[in-house]
C-alpha cells in the first residue's frame, strides 16, 4: 500500500467504530492464520486530543506484548501526533517487547474523508520461535541489515515508552547524564523532540528531572532548539 487508507467496502471510513467493524474479521483472520505468536492491534487515534496511554481499541493474541484493550500506544504513535500529514505506513520493520523479544512488524494508518488519521492497524510477529528454528526456517526470517536497533518499542504503559526513548537518546550522546554539559543535554532533548516524546503528558517534567535540570530550563532549551530548526 503506497498511501494511507481511507476506503472501506462501502466508501470512506469516518469513525473508529466503523473502522473497527470493518477490520475485526480481518484481525481475527490474520491472527488465526499466522498463529499465537502474531499480535494484531487496532489503535484508536480519532480524538483530536489523543490520550496515548489508552489507544488500544481491539487486540488479537495480546500475550505477544502483554497489552490489552485500553492499553498504550508506542513511540511510533508519538510521531503520528507530531506530524499527522506525513506518510506513516510502515512495513516489515523491527520492533521489540519490553522483555527484549524481537518483533517483525507492520503498521497501516487509516484516514477519514477529511484526511485525519482515525486509527492504525498494527501486526507484530514474535520472532522467538523462528529464531529458535533458524537453521530450518531461516528463509522465513526478515533480512538483517546493518542497523539492528529497534524502531518501535511495545510496553505495558506510556511511561515505559518514554523511559526507552530517553535511554536511547542518552546512549546516542555516548556519555552518562552526570558527565553531560549543556550541549549534550540539548542533544538529548532534540532527539526526544524529534521522536515526539513531548506529546506525552508531563514528559518535560520527567525528562528534565532525569537530566538534572529544572523544568524551566528544559522548556528554554526546547524553545531554543525549535527556533533554530524553524
Automatic annotation (TrEMBL):
Residues 162-223 form the Transcriptional regulator DauR-like HTH domain. It comes from the Bacteria. Pfam families: HTH_22, PAS_6. Coiled coil: none annotated. Residues 23-135 form the YheO-like domain. PANTHER family: TRANSCRIPTIONAL REGULATOR DAUR (PTHR35568:SF1). This is YheO domain protein.
Amino acid at each position: 500500500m503506497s498511501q494511507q487508507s481511507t476506503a472501506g467496502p462501502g466508501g470512506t471510513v469516518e469513525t473508529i467504530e466503523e473502522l473497527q467493524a470493518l477490520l475485526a474479521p480481518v484481525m481475527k483472520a490474520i491472527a488465526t492464520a499466522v498463529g499465537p505468536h502474531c499480535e494484531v492491534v487496532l489503535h484508536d487515534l480519532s480524538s483530536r486530543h489523543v490520550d496515548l496511554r489508552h489507544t488500544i481499541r481491539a487486540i488479537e493474541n495480546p500475550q505477544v506484548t502483554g497489552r490489552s484493550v485500553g492499553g498504550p500506544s508506542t513511540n511510533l504513535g508519538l510521531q503520528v501526533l507530531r506530524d499527522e500529514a506525513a506518510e506513516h505506513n510502515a512495513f516489515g520493520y523491527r520492533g521489540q517487547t519490553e522483555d527484549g523479544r524481537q518483533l517483525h512488524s507492520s503498521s497501516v494508518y487509516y484516514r477519514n474523508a477529511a484526511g485525519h488519521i482515525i486509527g492504525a492497524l498494527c501486526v507484530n510477529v514474535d520472532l522467538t520461535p523462528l529464531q529458535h528454528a533458524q537453521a530450518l526456517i531461516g528463509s522465513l526470517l526478515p533480512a538483517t541489515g546493518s542497523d539492528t536497533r529497534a524502531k518501535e518499542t511495545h510496553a505495558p504503559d506510556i511511561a515505559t515508552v518514554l523511559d526507552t526513548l530517553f535511554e536511547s537518546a542518552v546512549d546516542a550522546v555516548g556519555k552518562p547524564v552526570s558527565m553531560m554539559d549543556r550541549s549534550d543535554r540539548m542533544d538529548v532533548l532534540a532527539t526526544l523532540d524529534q521522536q515526539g516524546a513531548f506529546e506525552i503528558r508531563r514528559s518535560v517534567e520527567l525528562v528534565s528531572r532525569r537530566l538534572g535540570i529544572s523544568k524551566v530550563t528544559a522548556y528554554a532549551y526546547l524553545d531554543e532548539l525549535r527556533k533554530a530548526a524553524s
